[in-house]
Amino acid sequence: MSDYVKDLMAEVKAKHPAQPEFHQAVQEVAESLSLVLERHPEYKSARILERIIEPERVIIFRVPWVDDQGEIHINIGYRIEMNSAIGPYKGGLRFHPSVNLGILKFLAFEQVFKNSLTSLPMGGGKGGSDFDPKGKSDLKIMRFCQAFMSELFRHIGPNTDVPAGDIGVGGREIGYLFGQYKKLRNEFTGVLTGKGLNWGGSLIRPEATGYGAVYFAAEMLTTRNQTLEGKICLVSGSGNVAQYTVEKILDLGGKVVTLSDSNGYIYDEEGINKEKLNFIMELKNVRRGRIKEYVDKYKKAVYTPLDDNMDHNPLWDHKAHCAFPSATQNEINAKDALNLVNNGVYVVSEGANMPTTIDGVNIFLDKKILYGPGKAANAGGVSVSGLEMSQNSQRLPWTREEVDARLSLIMKNIHKTCVDMSNRFGTPGNYVNGANIGGFLKVADAMIDQGVV
Ligand code: NDP
Question: Which residue from 171, 385, 90 is spatially nearest to 179, judged by alpha carbons?
């Protein structure tokens, strides 16, 4: 670590204590950027990095709501408006009991670089609540979403800040949030993305993050003249990103053998085919059940419970070629990364945000595998959100083929940016540096153009 990064990290930790995920995200970016700052002292003297790591605005609010039994609950709501140098704040909302300021700041920080990489005009933001939607009735979810939006509505808008979904926020929640925004503002605008198709949503938005992560993996493989055909793939999670990752891997001829939720994972040596994927989609999206139920139906598959005290995640300990972490942050530690490499995995494309710890990332880099970090590999979701905003502005929906073609092109371009930037700064094959530098330059130049604001 250079002295500059050491000093910066000491300052960040002192100013923002007890935010380990935020520190981790900043450190990873700062290490890549030290290469840029050496060659471009103008960024250092304008203190761009020091400015980028401070959110432009943080909104924290009380979310009181009454459940269907008349009981009162109080949750915390957040919106981090991180950076608007290249467009309105854009980034998802996460509803999960683990949500806190540090986690949302890391996500908002990552989002700034990711959105810049898409080449669409979107700044970075993120938000959410410590509300746990798991096992709650639709009525409870609606009441919470309405209470959450009753405060958030005054801070967002189609040209200001455009939230979307993330963990625990899918089509159902976006619907309730949008309904409340429309009522309070008395206007029908594209203030949220991930909307229903018949009220302003875009085709391919639900699929976009998963499809994009697979397109990114396919692009990385082309650098070795290979395809996904016949490749064995480990996928974690079983939510939005994981489901469409599996779908696209199957389309491209790969075989998926794992999926998980926060309680455990399934290993199906025969492969999760389209019929089994449909079962999972119904299980997770309609019945909102647990992944364990998969082995009740498909008896040859094996279920293994997971718990937070394990020193590694056994899902990553199977023979395979590719891994698509698609659940949550830090789900691959150094031991998992070693297990993956030792089991033959040489392609990792991150559907989740920051799923690999810094030690894990360093192992992937040392072993020179094809490692696509989340801010590049999972940028497909926000890209199609950007396309949804364009369609809303035009008041004209595009066809499935048109959106998918644009998504695929954006993922190709992001891949190319990563390759070009890692080469330009002397670290060929290092997609981490490529993504961080590629995302940074556009935002940094815009900040310089716009003065110290
Ligand atoms: P979902 O809520 O649809 O699914 C999340 C999945 O991950 C569920 O299977 C969930 O299990 C599991 N999970 C969540 N938290 C944990 C945890 N702490 N430990 C283990 N498993 C966990 O979310 P998404 O699929 O939308 O998001 C998954 C990841 O992808 C996140 O990192 C998100 O930030 C990232 N991402 C999402 C985008 C999108 O467009 N949706 C865009 C870019 C990135 P359970 O049901 O038990 O909670």
Answer: 171
